[in-house]
Amino acid sequence: MERRIASTDSDGWSRAAIDSLLTQAKQFANRPECERHVLVTQLISDARRFGLHFDANDIEDEILSTAYGSHGGYWRSKTSQPMPVTRFAHLLATHSADPAERLGEFDRRSQVAKRAESALSLAIDAGDLKSFTRRGAIWIDPRSAAEYLARSPIHRDLLTATFLDFLEPERSRRNAAPPSTSRSLQVSGQELATFVRKYLLEQNNPTQRKIEAAAREAFGVDRVTRQRLRAAFNKARPDLQKPGPRGPRINRN
What we know:
Blueprint: H1 15-28, H2 33-49, H3 56-68, H4 72-78, E1 83-84, H5 85-96, H6 111-125, E2 132-134, E3 137-140, H7 142-151, H8 161-167, H9 169-175, H10 189-202, H11 208-219, H12 226-236, E4 243-244, E5 247-248
Antiparallel strand pairs: 1-3, 2-3, 4-5
C-alpha cells in the first residue's frame, strides 16, 4: 500500500495532513503485528521528518492510540526481543531526534542516537546492563536498556512520554487527563489566516483583543495560541500595528 503524507502550510501541519496520518494509523490497526509495529514506526518518522510544528509527543500519542488503542501495545512489541545497541539507539532517535538537526558528513547519527549508544555502552562496561555479541554486533534487551535510561536523570529525556508511560504505569495514570478533557490539535496556519481575513471583513473596529476572544470561541481555548493569532492579525492588517520606539511592534511566531 502506498503511503502519502499530505502537504503542509508554512505554519505547520494542515488538518488534512493530520487526518492523513491518523487514517493510515487506523488502517494499520488490522495488520499482523509483525508488520504493524514497523509501519507505525515509519509513520511517526514521516510525521517528524516532514516538519511537525506542534508537540511531538501529542502526534505520537495520537498515532499510537489510533493504531493500537493505547501506546502500550506498540512499545510492548518494540521491546519484546533483543536488538543491537545501534538499532535501539536509532529507534529512540526516530521518536526523539530534532528533524531539523544537521547531521555530520561522515557520521550520520543524530545527537539522540549518539547519546543513547554512549550511555548504553558505558552501562554494559560497568556491568549495569547485560549484553551479548552476535555477528559482530552488541545486542541488548531493549526493555532493560530503556529502564536503565529512565532511571538516569541525565538520560531520561531520550525516552518519549509514551515510552515512559509504558515503562512506568503509575506515571501514566498520574498524568492521565480527566475524562471530560480531550486533546486538541493546533489550528493550521491556513485555517487561522482564513478566519482572520473573514473576521476583518465583518468587523468595523477590529482589535487584537477582540479577535483573540472570537478565535477561542470558534476553535477552542487550546487550539490557538495568542502568538500565532497576533502574527496572522498583523500580517493581514499591518496598518493596525502599534508603533514602538524602534518601529512597529510585530508579534512573531
